[in-house]
Amino acid sequence: MTPALVFDGLLALLAVAAAMAAIGGRDLFGSVAFFIVYGLLIAIAWVRLDAIDVALAEAAIGAGLTGILLISALARVERTASSGESGEGGRLAKIAAALLCAGVAGALAWAALALDPQGAGLTPLISEALPQAGVGNPVTAVLLNFRAYDTLLESIVLLFALVAVWSLADDGNWGGLPGLRQHARSDGVLATFGRLLPPFGLVVAVYLVWAGSENPGGAFQGGTVLAAIWLLVAMAGITELPRVSSLPLRAALVFGPAFFLAVGAIGALAGTFLGLAPAAAKAIILAVEAGLTLSIAATLALLVAGSPQRTQG
Amino acid sequence: MSGALGHSATLFALTGAALVGIGLYGFVARTHLLRRVLAFNVIGSGVFLFFGATGFRRPDLGADPAPQALIITGIIVALSLTALALALITRYAALSGRSSLEDEAPDDEAPDAGDERGGG
Amino acid sequence: MTPIDLYTLAMIAAGAFFFFAGTLGLLRFPDLHSRLHALTKADNLGLGLIVLGLLPRMGDVATMLKMLLVWVLVVGAAATVAQLIARIALPGHLRSRPKDDGR
What we know:
Oligomer: heterotrimer
CATH architecture of chain B: Orthogonal Bundle
Number of domains of chain B: 1
Number of strands of chain B: 0
Low-confidence stretches of chain B: 105-120
Distance between the termini of chain B: 47 Å
Structural class of chain A: mainly alpha
Strand order of the largest sheet of chain A: 1-2
Shape of chain B: elongated
Distance between the termini of chain A: 60 Å
Largest sheet of chain B: none
Helix content of chain A: over 70%
Number of strands of chain A: 2
Low-confidence stretches of chain A: none
Structural class of chain B: mainly alpha
Number of domains of chain A: 2
CATH class of chain B: Mainly Alpha
Mean pLDDT of chain A: 89
Helix content of chain B: over 70%
Order of helices and strands of chain B: HHHH
Number of helices of chain A: 11
């Protein structure tokens, strides 16, 4: 038993306990709080697995943004719906469900233990191709060069989700302002914080994207920071989020994926769709990442704000 | 950081398996729609942890970048799904006044619901 | 064990003590405002001590500045959030949550 293994064991136990508290709790608000704690513990587990890029994404998106989404949905649902967790099955049904789920977990655990312990996965292939990728961070290389398809489609999925959320608005509010009106005092502590933080946040976001080519970081992590800053400024009442019909907003939302697609198309003319010439790869990846960061930030912020709720500010 | 991580990767893979089980139970056995979305996210991060940990079997090679990139993609897609599901639930709750999909035959009124659950 | 190791150990132990004390306050103090007090004071100090303890091991100035920035951001965010929670919890602002299940 090394100290590292003891630490990891405690971490795993805490994460499992937090997940059980989030699933089994009776008070939904408490469950959401436990879920956020759970997400942060999982982020630490990713650090322990040497996957810093994933840790950043999990902390910012898995714990942070998902937590905000759950809290704001909870507030809205509580206002309008009866909240009994009704119709839950009897004791027998719960025991049967628990046994089945334990079976699934057991099968997964068996699969993990049955894997070849010397399996190297794709690491050797990626290390071999990395010099041609244009970036030194292998995760960024996979995301924006080797498997750029995934990232392109994912950025479009994100956009579609936003369109779907918007389409749930009442007819009368279509094209209006997203989310509820914010009530913040203009001289309050939130307004002060909302004026203080953006300069730091912008630097951190740009740094995360720039450093992402050689070190952990990248468009998704940087975009999340930008989105958080924008939401903070909007919550503090310093600015208002734009109308969903606003043309500059829509241009910002579409720009990243469209630019990515255009780069892919140019690659297709040169031979391979989304193929990058090694000499130009770094510049192209950074440009695509800059565009994606802008679009991801706008999309995430508006996803959190929700569907248009009102037409007047 | 290396050395002991070979074992820890197995530990985290098993943790991921356990989290999938816990999340699945919440998804099946709990009825409040928001809790189901929460449980779905626990399943998701359990799968990610399982996937990422099994990509770290050889401490000499380090963490496999391919699963990491796919997991980051997965986290974003899970967020997209969560946002859409929550928007649908919010709308459903506003229109129907309910927060679960079960037949709530005995307990449309909240006070009765407490008694119903007391026994089970 | 070098003097720097001793310094780091002492600082991190002191930081961990403040985290422990703050968590104890969160669990044991009777009302929201005193819990917030325990949490923010102790945690900001605890994190600060841990950052200070780790600084001499960082190697280059850029990393040190990043760690200090993390501390400053955490202190700023914690102070702001504590103010907001405290104000909402003032008498008259409090929307009491139903105590029972599932709500």
